[in-house]
Amino acid sequence: MKEIDWSNLSFGYMRTDYNVRCYYRDGKWGEIEVSSEETINVHMAATCLHYGQEAFEGLKAFRCKDGKIRVFRMKDNAERLQSSCRGILMPELPTELFCEMVKKVIKLNERFIPPYESGASLYIRPLLIGTGAQVGVRPASEYLFVIFVSPVGPYFKGGFSTNPYVIIREFDRAAPLGTGTFKVGGNYAASLRANKMAHDLGYSCEFYLDAKEKKYMDECGAANFFGIKNNTYITPLSSSILPSITNRSLMQLAEDMGLKVERRPVPEEELATFEEAGACGTAAVISPIQRIDDLENKKSYVISKDGKPGPISTKLYNKLRAIQYGDEPDVHGWVTVID
Ligand code: PLP
Ligand code: COI
Question: How far apart are CA 339 and CA 336, in angstroms?
Fold first, then answer.
């Protein structure tokens, strides 16, 4: 194997040795299969290709200082996938099967887990697709669940440093009663144009406002949003955002640190009052926000006056990473040691 430059990995795909698969046929899940193929053979009329019957997950495993491998909040990812399944009428994958397959794929690809010192991790991508053929708009009767892994570095260039963001009013990612709370491919297809617009304008990522009133902060690309002021952690309550497991963890850690936590609609104007703000998700952990521009309204909300991550975001980031790498006790039972 060519040497991997662990410290300079980006967030991307790298071929590893194995993936694991499980098929749903005749109303039941089959045996776990191990594959070294990167491709899948799919019927041309499969519902995932035509009608978006597709859901995925994203979680990480870490090589720790004590030499052990830890995976973060695997059960919560299993449960969110089940919620996505209910959302687009796919059969729910049992939590035990999900966890068994995650553990298996990590062990099979152990040599791809970045070393502790690199600060990189193993990204785990579970994917569930409708494989049964349908021409009418109906759910498939056959499905494939597959998990692959890839060693990854930071999602945003520069890792834990501040970046500029932009509110894109021209596009919505998800409707109030749509599929925004599910991790399904269609939401990401809907985000591609806004995301390209933001990048073309030199921003790190796009922000969405609530689709109905265009008044409240929703999500930021493929990450949740939080703001901090007056010793309070504030994050949007919305029916069109993905319930981020990272955000949920940060809310708990904020509470543990003695901050107040508020989940409520966040009006755009409130951005002017935040002392710190960040985008959060598995991939980025926390990406601190330098400023958020609203080009159409000719407004720029500068959040980090000195261009540096704020003290509370930094503390939250360090705390979460320390738990993930096993450097601090896992008091909330978020971590599974893989042996
Ligand atoms: N929001 C969207 C739309 C996402 O795709 C993700 C990534 O998974 C998140 C938020 C963050 O969620 P999590 O913290 O569970 O990774
Ligand atoms: C995340 O893990 O936070 C993501 O947004 C993953 C993304 C590549 C869909």
Answer: 9
